[in-house]
What we know:
Layout: E1 4-9, H1 14-29, E2 33-38, E3 52-57, H2 59-69, E4 76-80, E5 90-91, H3 95-103, E6 107-112, E7 115-119, E8 130-131, E9 134-139, E10 145-151, E11 154-161, E12 163-167, H4 175-178, E13 191-196, E14 206-208, E15 213-220, E16 224-229, E17 232-237, E18 242-246, E19 251-256, H5 261-269
Parallel strand pairs: 1-2, 1-3, 3-4, 4-5
Antiparallel strand pairs: 6-19, 7-8, 7-18, 9-12, 9-16, 10-11, 10-15, 12-13, 13-14, 15-18, 16-17
Amino acid sequence: MLKKVAIYSKDNNVKTRDGVERLVKELDLRGIQVQLYHKGEESTPLTGLPDLVFSVGGDGTFLETVLKVKDLGIPVAGVNTGRMGFLANIPGEEIDKSVDQLCRNDYEIVERSMLEIIRPPQLFDNQSGIALNEITIQKANLSMITIHVYVDDVFLNTYWADGLIISTATGSTAYNLSVGGPILSPGDESIIISPVAPHNLTIRPILVSGNSRLKMVMEARAEEYLVTCDFRFRRLPVKEEIHIARSATKLKTVMLSGRDFYSTLRNRLMWGVDRRN
């Protein structure tokens, strides 16, 4: 039974504010204590370890919520007031029904693997280098970037491309999907390496073991390249290597009964829909 929850949102549009208000109302009706957090309060710690954290917004808000709970083992439930909603998979119009299910423990916990930038350390100052979706390396100007990739110190390939996406199974339906990468179910621990606009057309995405440690060595005409970690980014000198490994921690996410990854996939990507009708 839920006794205390936290709600995180960006509070940046009417739809999201309405979703938060309705969620607070439904929780209050059931006597559940609520902590509210909004964007701009990232440094505020969660107190008293709530039973559950709601992320209200889109998938971007969900990724920001991850930074608050990644080391606490608290499950995250995403309420979708945005667009796609692969992570925020509770429809905003079904908040009352969803809260009832949560109070009945009518859900399962899906543990999702995350990636972490090991080198350089402390790349994002006080923010973690952990990514739920993906880490990318991208060119900093119009010229292609050259990326030499090693898997467990064994040379994999040299990519001449606009960039490279290192994705989790969760991130397989994000940036990875847009460049033709494979879709993985959330529990898969594999790491996806997908090039962005590769110069060689024979180069394709590849899956490697989730236990792998990746090393990227860059060359470019520019003095810098861009590295992203979900919604964070930094410019780095070309001589700086990037080392990536699976994070030691996993994220617990809520999947309500009656919903599953495959139905979400069909609905969001409109598989089986005949647009001629």
